[in-house]
Design brief:
It contains one helix and eleven strands, in the order αβββββββββββ. It is mainly beta. Strands 4, 6, 7, 8, 10 and 11 form a six-stranded mixed beta sheet that branches. The chain is globular, with a radius of gyration of 14 Å.
Length: about 140
């Protein structure tokens, strides 16, 4: 039996002026297994450093009811365009409000608050540009 999860975007996210943060320049990833994902991929964890965009507490599964940090390594440098995060849990898609990525940026990060996901399942996140081209993708299991 497949677990179907429903995703709700919190009102506070819709009001956020910009979802994406300045690209980091830090070198070594933290010792807890976090850091910077491979090109074109998204990693998930407990938080991220908004200055360097290094992911902290990297995990393949996270508990329901906790915030989910996302760090995406774009497959090309941003040109200053608008991008959006598309989320899909068990076939139920949702889109986070778009943000403009700084020209030249390769890393973006965001934190979904605990209220954004209210059911367990496999969460797939895609970052796409304004034309719908995939820039990065990743999945994480949300545990009950």
């Amino acid at each position: 039996m497949a677990v179907v999860a429903v995703l709700v975007i919190a009102a506070s996210l819709a009001a956020a002026p910009a979802l994406f943060h300045k690209p980091g320049t830090s070198g070594a990833p933290p010792a807890d297994g976090g850091g910077i994902p491979a090109t074109g991929t998204i990693w998930f964890g407990s938080s991220f450093d908004a200055t360097s965009n290094l992911l902290l507490g990297r995990a393949d599964s996270l508990p329901l009811g906790k915030q989910v940090a996302i760090v995406a390594h774009l497959n090309r440098a941003a040109t200053g365009e608008l991008v959006e995060m598309q989320l899909d849990v068990g076939g139920t898609p949702a889109t986070l409000p778009g943000g403009e990525v700084i020209a030249g940026a390769r890393l973006i990060g965001e934190v979904l608050p605990a209220t954004a996901i209210y059911q367990a399942g496999t969460l797939t996140v895609r970052v796409v540009d304004a034309g719908g081209s995939l820039l990065a993708i990743g999945t994480v299991t949300i545990l009950p």
